Each structure stands twice: as structure tokens, then as C-alpha cells.
Automatic annotation (TrEMBL):
The keyword Nucleotide-binding applies. This is ABC transporter, ATP-binding protein. Signal peptide: none annotated. SUPFAM superfamilies: P-loop containing nucleoside triphosphate hydrolases. It comes from Bdellovibrio bacteriovorus (strain ATCC 15356 / DSM 50701 / NCIMB 9529 / HD100). Residues 5-230 form the ABC transporter domain. Transmembrane segments: none annotated. It comes from the Bacteria.
Length: 231
């Protein structure tokens, strides 16, 4: 198996009210490249915290994290930023769209830093919005959209740059079944054409049915691992 991530004894604590509160309590995992992986489990169990570590947004308190064959546990911030820009597409649970920019500008946001000229950035962003059924909303600002539309703009921004891995925190949470299906198809298309890896935190059993591996978290640990025939 070609591992995308290797986690050994990974721990994370939040500093809260002057105390360290342990949230991830020693996670050992190997996540495979080029497929859909789901992280499931009850609310508050540490799924978002784990995605933040995988996306190099936070630094582990203890343990070892390897990404694409490289030890990234204690990478300096500037190098982390470089890995995030070039290799990771992050879809946050709370979207983090830029309210002053249009849907099109939000979607194309990272592309100039990746070497796209203005015309190409606009073209790729429009194609991605079209794939997600949002082309008609390109000129709107995020506050002029519904929750599900905002979620899809966050998805468009993450996948437009064709990253090696997409980390998506509850990406179908605000979507109806038809829109969710369309979104999953867009993910599938990217996985097939670019061998993109997708790691989802989700409560959506339909999305879970597309995953090759499903990891159930309980109380900051991996409680159960299931490998299945992905849809
Ligand atoms: N900034 C923070 N400071 C202190 N504790 C935090 C912070 N962020 C999260 N936590 C705590 O860490 C635990 C795990 O949170 P996390 O967001 O990873 O859960 P989750 O599994 O993603 O839940 P959900 O399914 O509701 O999204 C929770 O108990 C939460 O209260
Ligand atoms: Mg969460």
C-alpha cells in the first residue's frame, strides 16, 4: 500500500482555561493514496481536530506525522504553508469564505499563487463552479447565498487547485440528496482523473458508502476500522 499519511501515537491537546485538555489520545493510522477515506464518530470525538493535524493547520502535541513520505510533525510554519498551498485542499466545517469577494473570486483565490494567469484562473474557477451547479451564482458574494451554496463554494475553492489531497469536514452536511450526489460525483471525477485522495469527516452514511476505508473515532481514539468495496 502506498501510504499518503502515516500517524504514530498522534496526540493533540487544546489549552483551555489554562489547562491542557487531551482530545486526540494516541492515534495510529496509515491512510491510503488515491481513494476516499471516511472518519466517522460522535460529535466532539476529535474528527475536526484530526483533520486540522492532517492539513498541517495545527501541530501534534505528541507522536509522529508523515505526509507523502515526509516527516511533517514539526515542520516550520513557512514550509507547512507551502505544503498546504500546493498539496492540500481544505473544506472547513464553517467554510471560511471571504465575504468581500465574489463566488468566482473565492473559488479562484489560490490559483494565482500556484502560477495561473488571471484568464486561466477565471476559466478553471468557472469550470469548477459549473461542475458543482453554481455557475449562475459566480458574481454573488457569500452572504447572498444559501448555506448549501456557501458549502459548495468552499468545495469549489478546495478542488479548483487540484490538490494531492482534499480534507473535507462534513462536506455534505448542508446539502440535499441531489446536490450531495452531484458534489460526490465531482469528487469522484477528480479522484479518477488526478488520483486525488479524499479524507472526509462525516455523519453522512451515503458518503461513507463511497469510501474504501472507514475509521470510527470514539473519545479521541480510533475505535474501529472497516475496509469495504467502495461504490
Ligand atoms: N479551540 C478549542 N479549545 C478547547 N477545546 C476544543 C477546541 N476545539 C475543539 N475542542 C474540543 O475538542 C473536542 C473535539 O472537537 P472536534 O471539533 O474535533 O470534534 P468533532 O468530532 O469534529 O465533532 P463534530 O462531529 O461535532 O464536528 C471537543 O470536546 C471540543 O469541545
Ligand atoms: Mg467536526
Amino acid at each position: 500500500m502506498s501510504a499518503l499519511y502515516r500517524l504514530k501515537g498522534l496526540e493533540y491537546s487544546y489549552l483551555w482555561n489554562g489547562k491542557q485538555v487531551p482530545v486526540l489520545k494516541g492515534i495510529d493510522l496509515e491512510l491510503e493514496k488515491g481513494c476516499f477515506t471516511c472518519i466517522v464518530g460522535p460529535s466532539g470525538t476529535g474528527k475536526t481536530t484530526l483533520l486540522n493535524l492532517l492539513g498541517l493547520i495545527d501541530t501534534p502535541s505528541n507522536g509522529h506525522l508523515e505526509f507523502a513520505g515526509e516527516d511533517v510533525t514539526h515542520l516550520p510554519e513557512s514550509e507547512k504553508e507551502n505544503v498546504r498551498l500546493h498539496k492540500v485542499g481544505f473544506i472547513f466545517q464553517s467554510f471560511y469564505l471571504i465575504p468581500t469577494l465574489t463566488v468566482l473570486e473565492n473559488t479562484s483565490y489560490f490559483l494565482p499563487s500556484l502560477g495561473y494567469n488571471h484568464a486561466n484562473a477565471q476559466k478553471v474557477a468557472m469550470e469548477t463552479l459549473d461542475l458543482l451547479g453554481l455557475a449562475d451564482h459566480a458574481k454573488k458574494k457569500p452572504l447572498e447565498l444559501s448555506g448549501g451554496q456557501r458549502q459548495r463554494v468552499a468545495i469549489a475553492r478546495a478542488i479548483a487547485k487540484k490538490p494531492a489531497v482534499v480534507l473535507a469536514d462534513e462536506p455534505t452536511a448542508n446539502l440535499d440528496s441531489v446536490t450531495a450526489e452531484k458534489t460526490i460525483n465531482a469528487f469522484k471525477e477528480l479522484q479518477k482523473s488526478e488520483n486525488t485522495s479524499f479524507i472526509f469527516s462525516t455523519h453522512d452514511s451515503h458518503l461513507v458508502s463511497f469510501a474504501k476505508s472507514v475509521y470510527r473515532m470514539k473519545d479521541g481514539m480510533i475505535d474501529n476500522t472497516k475496509n469495504q468495496e467502495a461504490k
